[in-house]
Design goal:
The chain contains 19 helices and 21 strands. By secondary structure, the protein is α/β, with parallel strands linked by helices. The chain folds into 3 domains: 3-228, Alpha-Beta Barrel (TIM Barrel), CATH 3.20.20; 308-408 and 520-541, 3-Layer(aba) Sandwich (Rossmann fold); 410-518, 2-Layer Sandwich (Dihydrodipicolinate Reductase, domain 2), CATH 3.30.360.10.
Length: 550
């Protein structure tokens, strides 16, 4: 590993605990979450990892467990700092034996050495290893800072001391590091709330506390900044800034452990004395600053979230009215309501996401608008022609996150999941039929939900469009096994009903979903919009949102 690899987002890992002991299963789950989010590196047993209250044996075992969980996919930097030089040297040697790829060494705390003492302290550590060393300057904890002069002297004598974690809270200090040490020396922010200011001054990334929870959004934000796309980076930075501040309202890692527990990533928010649990006041602030991430992430914070500003296209339609009615109760605000004849481009400012329940001919233009403004899009409109679908996909592909579903009901998407499972279990001896029922106002047939069920069955039975039979009339002959029957009923005020039949010899399996209130679709679409914000560009369905993926 060299200085060029100290770039992007490195997570300062929390050390999960339960009933006084390190929770190694939770640690493995936390590392897995990091890898899923494409983290650039991990920092084990730093301040966030509660290194001051770990025994030496625990310290080394946590490093070893982190290295094993990472599996060589990303570098693991081990915290080995101490206010005792001999202890820091010993920890560094033991961490290297445990498989660490480099070391984070904080300035000695409490004894407040001179700058010459710092130089000699870090020199002895450097002479104990050939692996990269990251210096850590954080005067608020240590009472001293590492001067630019000492940093330069160390780098000249020991080129493997090649990175600084700058946590002085000063963009000016970052500038001094960059000017004095040159382009081959890496400077990483030690403060989530100062990532972009520091990167604008030349920092190469961040050693982050927030990325314990928020991996992919931060990785993408930092990458955008590295590409000088500060407009994109700024949008993410401003969105999550309240969360960055909230996790430092009390001593680190108390707030982030609470958030990880609420997200279901670790089983306990436990910290070791002299740290104590989160106060009620901070808990409320953290709740309101947190993300509404969904189980498919797999993060789901069970908290009150910041309201999502939505551009609702098709606001006067049945679904538009339903969404408007329940938006506030679902942590959303209809910031702009558009309908036929309105110019959506005049309404997009200050919106976090677009929900489209309009008409199939309108969606391609809405997709262009979403891409032009880098805003996630939720498509609930159905009835698109094959040509329109191609245009929409070409417009959004690789550019923005899009949730595109024929039905946003949690129950219907569970039906989709069960249909796939049943088809795979039952096989070709059971003939599939789909029946859908809707109100007399519905214009398209089959419904978007039925189309999704058909796609699932086609995939499961390896059939094509020519093998889908829409209704039957006259002498159609015996039903071939290689066929999917589809039937549509329209009448009255039926909200929506879908049944998938698997017809075998001697038995029949029916999977049915009945909707009685459009509120379920409205709730699902808002849930999808919350989920889409912060996702990587791609086209997702509601099963992705709900985590119904084997």
């Amino acid at each position: 590993m060299n200085s060029n690899q100290f770039s992007g987002v490195f997570t300062a890992l929390a050390t999960p605990m339960n009933q006084g002991a390190v929770a190694y299963d939770d640690l493995e789950a936390l590392v897995a979450h990091q890898l899923k989010g494409n983290i650039n590196g991990l920092v084990s047993v730093g301040t966030t990892g509660e290194s001051p209250t770990l025994s030496h044996k625990e310290h080394v075992e946590v490093i070893r467990a982190t290295v094993a969980a990472a599996g060589g996919k990303v570098p693991v930097i081990a915290g080995t700092g101490s206010n005792s030089t001999d202890e820091a040297v010993d920890l560094t040697k033991n961490a290297e034996a445990a498989g660490a790829d480099g070391f984070l060494v904080v300035a000695p705390y409490y004894n407040k050495p001179s700058q010459e003492g710092l130089f000699q302290h870090f020199s002895q550590i450097a002479e104990s290893t050939e692996k990269p060393i990251v210096l850590y300057s954080i005067p608020s904890r240590c009472g001293i800072e590492i001067s630019v002069d000492v940093t330069a002297r160390l780098y000249e004598k020991y080129p493997h001391i090649c990175c600084m974690k700058a946590a002085e809270g000063s963009c000016e200090k970052v500038t001094e590091y960059v000017r004095a040490l040159g382009p081959d020396y890496a400077v990483m922010s030690g403060d989530d709330g100062l990532i972009l200011p520091f990167m604008s001054a030349g920092a190469t990334g961040v050693i982050s506390v927030a990325s314990n929870l928020l991996v992919d959004p931060l990785v993408q934000m930092v990458q955008a900044a590295k590409n000088n796309d500060y407009a994109t980076a700024r949008k993410t930075y401003l969105k999550y800034y309240p969360f960055f501040k909230a996790i430092f309202l009390e001593p680190n890692p108390v707030p982030i452990k609470y958030a990880l527990k609420q997200a279901g990533i670790i089983q306990s928010e436990e910290v070791r004395l002299p740290l104590s649990g989160l106060t009620d006041g901070t808990r409320q602030v953290l709740m309101h600053s947190s993300l509404n991430l969904d189980s498919s992430n797999p993060i789901k914070l069970h908290t009150t979230t910041m309201a999502l500003n939505i551009l609702l296209n098709g606001s006067s339609g049945r679904m538009g009215i339903a969404i408007s009615a329940i938006a506030e109760a679902n942590n959303a605000v209809i910031a702009s309501a558009c309908d036929q004849g309105d110019d959506p481009s005049a309404c997009v400012a200050n919106c976090d996401a677009i929900i489209d329940f309009s008409f199939h001919e309108i969606t391609p233009g809405i997709a262009q608008l979403a891409v032009a403004n880098n805003i996630p899009l939720v498509i609930g409109t159905t009835g698109h022609t094959p040509e329109e679908k191609v245009v929409i996909l070409k417009t959004v592909e690789g550019k923005i996150p899009v949730v595109w579903a024929g039905n946003y009901s949690v129950g219907v998407n569970t039906l989709n999941y069960l249909t796939r499972k049943a088809a795979n279990i039952l096989g070709e001896q059971y003939e599939p039929e789909v029946l859908e029922m809707h109100h007399h106002h519905k214009k398209d047939a089959p419904s978007g939900t039925a189309e999704r069920l058909i796609e699932i069955l086609k995939d499961s039975y390896q059939l094509n469009n020519e093998q889908v039979m829409h209704g039957r009339e006259g002498l159609v002959g015996a039903r071939p096994r290689t066929e999917i029957g589809v039937h549509a009923i329209r009448g009255g005020d039926i909200v929506g009903e879908h049944t998938v039949y698997f017809c075998g010899e001697g038995e029949r399996i029916e999977l049915t979903h009945r909707a009685t209130d459009r509120k379920i679709f409205a709730q699902g679409s808002i849930r999808a919009a919350h989920w889409a914000v912060g996702q990587a560009p791609g086209v997702y369905n509601m099963e992705d949102v709900l985590g119904l993926v084997d």
